[in-house]
Write a structure and sequence with these properties.
596 residues, alpha/beta, ABC transporter transmembrane region fold, Rossmann fold, 2 domains, 6-stranded mixed β-sheet, 4-stranded antiparallel β-sheet, 18 helices, 64% helix, binds adenosine-5'-triphosphate, AAA+_ATPase, transmembrane, transport, membrane
Length: 596
């Protein structure tokens, strides 16, 4: 399988840069972010106060005998303890609820931006991409953003805050040895987690790449379902897929085993620290330096501290993984479209509608020239046809005019304006294309037709369908205009799809037309009817027609004959016949074939 450009993104940016790139997505809800941070602080203050309440309860019960005990004191303390516990959860939940909208909106904005960006990418990118892998990258990237936002703010920062608060309390209440012991255990834990997670990141990356590869393979294979069946290649396809799955399985296995090693190591550090610090506390209680309440408080702090720390390991892992995924997603956004509007591009100003190619050279790849100095003009309202052998570069002319690619040298102009100097939007708005292969959306026929002009009324849509000789066919279907056309329109015949394409362009009603083999999939009766419709449409428009069947373009004002990227003959049908060259030979051949 050829690796796609999207699967090859390998940039490794510093983490802070990736996180900084998220900031603009948060600015919409600055107030909410501030409020969420406020709730976060409140949640941590209450969490850290809870063990203090517990200490006072234990000390009171320990130091007072039944005779001198005022029962309401420990009861009030217990109520305070319970309320603090509840408040800590309440503030955490409030923080989540307040921030939820920020995170969800950020995800929405990023998804939309990526979607828009992908539509801005040039045709070459889309011809190269692998849809399955790209979809996974986007999904993982947007999920990564949500994770980064929520967990940096709700786990890393609060845990650090809690460590600082607990350390300060222990420093004030006892001595520096506890703070030092906690500091050392936390440090060992964090260094261990980070080191092991760094080591694991390679496995995570590899698992993602393998995941994309196998997914792309599966989707490509399913999209080519018919071809697979024509060649009885189900087993071959399964083997190919399994080759990818084997690599995926290995990568995932490495991923899981290394995760088990990380979890075990973390649990060991927590256990050892707990033992060490509690032995210190036991000694102090025994020597009378600490009360029973103090012991309970230290124990509560340790357990309380290690709970988020335990999650910190998981969060760090996930954050690393999210950073990889977000980096990839942002990497996609950073790749600039090869075809972009010029800095001061203006809208194309159509006066007459004259199209001109001036000494156009073009190659898709540097090592193979497709067009070798093509020049011609289509005067406003005229129809110029291009004929010639397959692969001569006819459709390439249409792609260049639509600016799917830019010329290598020379230029193309419309009413004297170089199409590279006008906005792509204004250019494409003025051109209607009936392509060689029509691919439809997996939607109803009606919606596919209306796509030509989404604001069109039902009457207009039906009128266009009538003009394209499609209406009678549609109403003969059990579900009429609501019939679903299937994936890429595969439930319609080639000719029906072509008629949908024609009707769409009729609805768009553009002043310039490109008909690329627009009637090639039609039988000769339908072809005649549609040619009449197309002739009617192209009468007032500047039209570029690409055709194989010469009979369909014999009425064109000028016919260009192309061979290997050059125009070798041009003139009207009669002039070209009189020339008795390539065109005349082709015409005779086709007439002969039609008769026999
Ligand atoms: N995206 C692409 N990348 C590389 N080469 C391409 C690309 N698209 C087309 N080509 C090549 O450019 C040449 C011209 O293609 P083009 O589609 O313009 O031919 P055509 O004259 O319209 O042929 P046909 O009559 O068969 O449609 C072909 O040899 C084709 O293989």
């Amino acid at each position: 399988m050829r690796p796609s450009t999207d699967n090859n993104y390998q940039g490794h940016k510093p983490n802070w840069k990736i996180i900084a790139e998220l900031w603009p997505y948060l600015t919409e809800f600055k107030g909410r972010v501030v409020l969420a941070v406020g709730m976060l602080i409140l949640a941590k203050v209450t969490t850290v106060s809870t063990p203090i309440a517990l200490k006072y309860i234990v000390d009171y019960l320990d130091q007072h005998r039944a005779a001198d005990m005022l029962l309401w004191v420990p009861i009030m303390l217990v109520i305070a303890y319970g309320t603090l516990r509840f408040s800590s959860t309440l503030f955490s939940e409030l923080r989540d609820a307040i921030f939820a909208r920020v995170a969800e909106r950020a995800m929405r904005r990023v998804s939309l931006r990526v979607f828009r960006h992908l539509h801005q990418r040039e045709l070459a990118f889309h011809l190269d991409r692998k849809t399955g892998g790209l979809a996974r990258d986007i999904e993982r990237g947007t999920r990564g953003i949500s994770f980064l936002l929520r967990f940096t703010l709700f786990n890393i920062i609060p845990t650090l805050l809690e460590i600082v608060m607990v350390a300060s309390i222990l420093l004030v209440a006892f001595n520096a040895s506890y703070v030092l012991a906690i500091f050392i255990s936390v440090l060992i834990y964090v260094v261990f987690s980070i080191r092991v997670t760094e080591w694991r990141t390679g496995f995570v990356r590899e698992a993602n790449i393998r995941d994309n590869q196998s997914n792309s393979k599966a989707i490509d294979s399913l999209l080519n379902y018919e071809t697979v069946k024509y060649f009885n290649n189900e087993r071959f396809e399964a083997e190919q897929y399994d080759n990818d799955l084997v690599l995926w399985e290995k990568a995932r296995l490495k991923n899981r085993l290394s995760m088990a090693a990380l979890n075990t190591g973390q649990a060991f550090i927590i256990g050892a620290s707990l033992i060490g610090i509690l032995i210190m506390a036991v000694n102090e209680v025994a020597s009378g330096a600490m009360t029973l309440g103090d012991f309970t408080m230290v124990n509560a702090y340790l357990i309380q501290l290690f709970i988020p720390l335990n999650a910190l390991g998981f969060v760090y892992r996930e954050i690393r993984q999210s950073l990889v995924n977000v980096e990839r997603l942002f990497g996609l956004l950073e790749e600039h479209p090869a075809i972009e509007d010029a800095p001061y591009a203006q809208a194309l100003h159509l006066t007459q509608g004259e199209i001109a190619f001036h000494d156009v050279h073009f190659s898709y790849n540097p090592d193979r020239t497709i067009l070798k100095g093509v020049s011609f003009t289509i005067p406003a309202g005229h129809k110029v046809a291009v004929v010639g052998a397959s692969g001569a570069g006819k459709s390439t002319l249409a792609r260049l005019l639509f600016r799917f690619f830019d010329v290598s040298s020379g230029h193309i102009s419309i009413d004297g304006q170089d199409i590279r100097q006008v906005t792509q939007d204004s250019l494409r708005n003025l051109i209607g294309v009936v392509p060689q292969d029509t691919v439809l959306f997996n939607d109803s026929i009606y919606n596919n037709l209306a796509y030509g002009r989404p604001s069109a009324s039902q009457e207009e849509v039906e009128h266009a369908a009538r003009q394209a000789n499609l209406h009678d066919f549609i109403i003969s279907l059990p579900e009429g205009y609501k019939t679903k056309v299937g994936e890429r329109g595969l439930k319609l015949s080639g000719g029906e799809k072509q008629r949908v394409a024609i009707a769409r362009v009729l609805l768009k009603n553009p002043p310039l037309l490109i008909l690329d083999e627009a009637t090639s999939a039609l039988d000769s009766i339908s072809e005649h009817i549609i040619l009449d419709a197309l002739n009617e449409v192209s009468r007032q428009r500047t039209t570029l027609v690409i055709a194989h069947r010469l009979s369909t373009v014999s009425d064109a004002d000028t016919i260009l004959v192309m061979e290997q990227g050059e125009i070798i003959e041009s003139g009207s049908h009669n002039a070209l016949l009189a020339l008795n060259g390539y065109y005349a030979k082709l015409w005779q051949q086709q007439q002969h074939t039609t008769k026999t």
